[in-house]
Design a protein that fits this description.
157 residues, alpha/beta, Rossmann fold, 46% helix
Amino acid sequence: MPFIVDGYNLLHFIQKASEDFGAITDVQLCRIISEYLRQINENGEVVFDGTGPRDKGGFDNISNLEVFFSGLRSDADTVIEDKIKASTAPRRLTIVSSDRRLRDAARRRKATVVKSQVFWDNVQKQLSRKTRVKEPREKREGLSEGETERWLEIFDL
């Protein structure tokens, strides 16, 4: 389910609500969201108002997440509304914003709506979990008889 995040809406919520993340930047936010999306095997987009920083190099190499800026003649809400309208599968979208206008636009197209606070709580819970590395079968079951013999030959034992 692709996510579309109202960037500054989420960023302002985090800055007001969290002492730990009070000084978070837009680039740091995108990296955190990217890691969250990677862990849940999803992709998404973040839309910010304005033109963004002059040097957008900080947004390079962010996986699972595309970053957009609305430009000077539009705003993030309008860009997100256009994305919702243009979607061929709006029911698969998850819109992250506490903005009533966007939540209403998403509901009209039957997209899932998540308020910024709920989304951020989900992100924090997911990222605080220890990621489980899939262990090889041999770790639990040991080597087969043939593999054991082969290693004994290699080490001349």
